[in-house]
Design brief:
- The protein has a 5-stranded mixed beta sheet with strand order 1-2-5-3-4, sandwiched between helices.
- The protein is globular and about 55 Å long.
- The longest helix has 20 residues.
- The chain is built from 9 helices and 5 strands.
- By secondary structure, it is of the alpha/beta class.
Length: 215
Amino acid sequence: MANQLLNELPKGTRIIKQDDYFYPDDDPHHIPCPGGIQHNNYDVISSMDINKMIQDVKSVIHSSPTTSALTDTLTLGRESELSDTCKKCPMPLPILLLDGFMLYADPQLLEMCDLRYFFTLTRDECWERRQHRSYIPEDPPGYFETCVWPMYEEHLKYVRENVSEVIYLEGCGDHFSDVWNRVLSAAGLSDAMKEKKGNFQSRGYCVCDHSEKEV
């Protein structure tokens, strides 16, 4: 979802992925898996440098987009058609996508998210998808049952009970069009993008987690 949004939204759109902030495997921040499994538990927020992620998100939010990036966002390649008066009009909001599986576990990250999405999965589907992905280091036997699924359920329960304004989406469905339209509306881009895409009907906006969201 996040990658597809990044490809379809204007050029100035940015993305920050929580997976890029895992500590090195030998970092002392890691805690061991329960049950005697000889492996780090990578499904807890302490396995990631969240302070660095927050710093990077704030850096993007508080930066001033270049004039060219804002013009691209506004005109979608039609700069020559703008009058001088129109070029001085208020610009639409630049878009930052956040992609991660525990985005709502940190209050600062949560506060910076304007649109909040959480993609849910059944246990069987989650297991099936994990079998087709490569991890470094690889999952040891029992890691899914001991860490992955229990932490997903715990985080989902936390979000349902403590986080407001979250839109829950079934992870096997096709939700791109709905998400896309919400993102465009929030960023003030609906009319321009619809004009560019014509009758395009299959695209949307968000940030991902087992939950997912956006700024």
